[in-house]
Amino acid sequence: MVFGYYFPMAYRNLRLSGGDLSVIDEGQGLWVYHGTPRLMPRAHRHNDVEINFLVSGIFEYQLGGDHFQISPGEVAVFWAAYPHRLLPSSHGTAFWLQLPFEMVLNWQLSSLEMSALLGTVPRLLKPAHMPYDPAAMFEAWHVEMQDPVHHKIAAVEVQALVRRALLQGQNNATPNHHGDPSYPHTKSGLVGRVAQFITANFREPLTAAEISAAAHLSPSYAMAVFKEITGMTMGQYTNWCRVSEAQRLLVATDLSVSEVAAASGFTNLSSLYTHFNSECSVSPGVYRKLSRAHPQSDTQYHSGLAHLYINSQSEEDWNL
Description:
By secondary structure, this protein is an alpha+beta fold. The chain has helices at residues 101-105, 111-117, 134-144, 151-168, 187-201, 208-214, 219-230, 234-252, 257-264, 269-280, 284-293, 307-310; strands at residues 3-6, 11-15, 22-26, 31-35, 43-45, 48-63, 66-70, 75-79, 84-86, 91-100, 123-125.
């Protein structure tokens, strides 16, 4: 059986400067999928926390500049803003679950958990560290996340799985990131502070100096480290967050395009159109019409699940 629910976001190709890796930038969204892997000729990235559970076969990933493998029964958790892709040798069936990064930040993770999450390699949770059958849990989440009453139960269980992976999962590639004292001084820790500030404040006017000061860094160092680790500039990440928010508002609300621009953090309507067209290859108005005219994607993913977060009257449903 193959199933999936996806809040669709447009994407575009991006040639990373300083390298020849072609990366697909995708918008964020709550996303659940069960089945076989899609062919990924190029890496992609999206501002979500990604959870993979392998049922059968072997998955080999490229994440940033590293490679890792998932074996049956294991759960991998990582920040998907780093360019990543499944390698062609991967085969089998799996569950995928994506959580918008902003949603996870609302959990108020400890510095130890943030260090694990923002490292450039995933946290791998072995079956022995899970006091339940993960396949049964993912099956249940697929059903409960669509239920207006029971989705809170799924939210608590998803958060527990992520935090268990961050605290108990294996991460042999970053042996020096396992403690609060070292976290603020690692590069992933610095990037985490910058990303947290941008994600929480992208709706307001931001400058490189303000972002760097919030992370207690000089602007030049903050910009250099952020670009080195994520492949994006701080400005690109800020506008990425704003475009993703604009996409969400265009589909989930009846706000005018001007109101969407203001609510997403763009200083004027022209700025929204410039960045939105660049990222999505269509105007905001066309994007809204297409998303409403074709609520079901031409792929095997279907829109619908994300309304539990996106259309909620209060984000407190996920702030557990």
